[in-house]
User: What shape does this take?
Amino acid sequence: MTSQPPPASNPSPVATPGTRGIDPRGPRFSAGITAVLLLVVIGLDLGGGSTAGGTLLERAGQPAAILFSAITVLFAWGFFAGVTRHPYGWLFRTLVRPRLDAPSHLEDPRPPRFSQGVGLAVTLVGLLLHLVGVPYALEVFAGAAFLAAFLNAMFDFCVGCQLYLVFVRVGIIRPRADSRA
Amino acid sequence: MTPLAVAAILLGLVAGSTTIGLVWRSTTGRIRGVAHVDERIRVTDLSADAVAGSGATLLQFSTEFCSPCRTTRSLLGSLAAELPGITHVDIDVTARPDLADRFNLLQSPTTFILDATGTVRSRIGGAPRAGDLRAELGRILEAAA
Assistant: This one.
């Protein structure tokens, strides 16, 4: 694809015509909530002492594990239903967005959705390892997810930009064959 | 673990993440010079409707899952429109892992500045900075003149 010189009257980047763009501050707001919740998970887990002991049911019933499961479900929601149908997206639109100026541009909802998928994979693996009794699984995986969510919220760091090509090249993701040029 | 120790660990986590964020922000979009490249890239081989610039070509690699690719496309497109002899080519590598391997792409957007012969002169990982890019293009055009 070659980009033609854009008309001078339209210098700001906008969502592709025909697609519904989202306010770029929405995903960062959501990432901020997620980062705080993940920090609470780590705090609860560290404060609660040994986490890997006990039976499967005991491990699943720990406050940190319950909150971490909820975060995992919210990532799944964002990935499968899309960020615009996510509770945080709704929260942003009803509570935050009306208090802000209009966005300078709109963004494609696919990058944040990809990030939700990465978040889902990381938290799901962490949760399963915790449930089978691996020590510090919650801390390590919640810590990794926290780093990504925190960087996204505070620095506008784009998870999909950093990880997608690496995943494709090591074979974790297979690109759709039909769109190959 | 005591509440104080837990608080110290959480604070350390936030401080460490902030440091990583600051380092990332100061390095992303930096222009890195490329020395000794024998390979010449013909952009028309990468995309049928691509046009190589008579002075320099801004070759951008994007993916679908990348918001900064959009802002980069706008920046490079307007630079190409403004500066004579400069063109902009944007390749979506979402379905082209062969290109990601061939050019060792690790993140999107990644931008190459090609000179008039198609030789890669500079490489930019992340969203480029407009001022640095203008200066670099000026140097490349001057060296060719």
User: Anything to note?
Assistant: Chain B has a mean pLDDT of 92. The longest strand of chain B covers residues 56-62. Chain B touches chain A through 55 residues (CB under 8 Å). Helices of chain B lie at 3-27, 43-46, 67-82, 97-102, 130-144.
